[in-house]
Amino acid sequence: MRLDGRTVGTRHEERVIPTGTTAHLEPVRVEVRGLTKDFGPVRAVDDLTFTVEPASVTGFLGPNGAGKTTTMRMVLGLERPDSGTATFNGATYASLAAPVRTVGAVLETAFHPARSGRNHLRVYCRAAGLPVSRADDVLVQVGLADAGGRRAGGYSLGMRQRLALATALLGDPSVLVLDEPANGLDPEGIQWLRGFIRHLAHDQGRTVLVSSHLLSEMEHTADRVVIVGAGRLVREGSIAELRSGAQGEGAVLVRSPETTRLAEVLGAAGLGVRPGGDGLVTVTGSTPADVGARAFQAGIELHELRAESSGLEELYFRLTAGQEQYAASTTDTTTTGTTTQGAAR
Ligand SMILES: Nc1ncnc2c1ncn2[C@@H]1O[C@H](COP(=O)(O)OP(=O)(O)OP(=O)(O)O)[C@@H](O)[C@H]1O
């Protein structure tokens, strides 16, 4: 969190807000405590507790069916928990004085295909009691200003995702809850989305919770991650913490003219060793520094030494292994390509 910014407010209500933050935004912390939800025999969410901090991006990660959407729906008051609470600075969604200004969401999309993007947004403005001028504000924010007059039915998937984000931003909310917003985007769209999400949190001070089933999608976007499997919390922490925990998870590639002796030395140290061709050895359960040190101590010449991957993906798979649920979900945003709604209306 960047709380090194300006001090604003009167003497009585002074508060420090992050540099570049939209001054009127109230920092809001989302707290999920013991959330549990059953659908018949399926426990979709199981005693889940985590926190989403202001001015940062929290990645909500888990395999298909892990309970991410159900959790987000409970946070947004769209689904009633069997037990537990989700609160915004201590208040449940239902008790928020101004929900549309507190939280916006991208969940499931439904656009009237014949309506223009701008008119779609204006309908939401009227329903939420917001000035219709907000429609143009948010179109600019998401880069759709030139396309606002076109039929939403003719939008590409990337444009629909932008319109979904625009809808979530209508109330200029402190909190954004985004369910798999990168689904179906092309690489350019994903790149834009990453930057935009970081901007919303780091420059504007918003609290952002964004779900994905891919760690690679979150690795360069999120500050913190909450990992769930089969409805339960598997890991919560910063990306840096996760990264340091992942050391040794990824394979190390090492090239040497003495592969046989190298394999003996590393194997004797209990490491996994897979000799390949061309003097290459793949080592698991270690780090480049460790392999380098062991080779040095044994006086073995190395020509190349590098991590095959950061190990994060391997750690994520291990943490969530066997927890994928294949029960059909009611909404498949990948195939419908539709998403969104400011739940906060
Ligand atoms: N309305 C519902 N009725 C019955 N079961 C449901 C319902 N909604 C979700 N489930 C089940 O609850 C579990 C959690 O689903 P959920 O959609 O929350 O997971 P998810 O992590 O969002 O998955 P995905 O990444 O596939 O969207 C799954 O087993 C799912 O089939």
From TrEMBL:
InterPro entries reported in the protein's UniProt record: AAA+_ATPase, ABC_transporter-like_ATP-bd, ABC_transporter-like_CS, P-loop_NTPase
Keyword NADP: no
Record-linked SUPFAM superfamilies: P-loop containing nucleoside triphosphate hydrolases
Gene Ontology molecular function, alphabetical: ATP binding; ATP hydrolysis activity
Pfam families named in the record: ABC_tran
PANTHER family xrefs: ABC TRANSPORTER, ATP-BINDING PROTEIN
Keyword annotations of the record: ATP-binding, Nucleotide-binding, Transport
Keyword set includes ATP-binding: yes
Ranges for domain ABC transporter: 30-255
Protein family: Belongs to the ABC transporter superfamily.
Name this polypeptide is given: ABC-2 type transport system ATP-binding protein
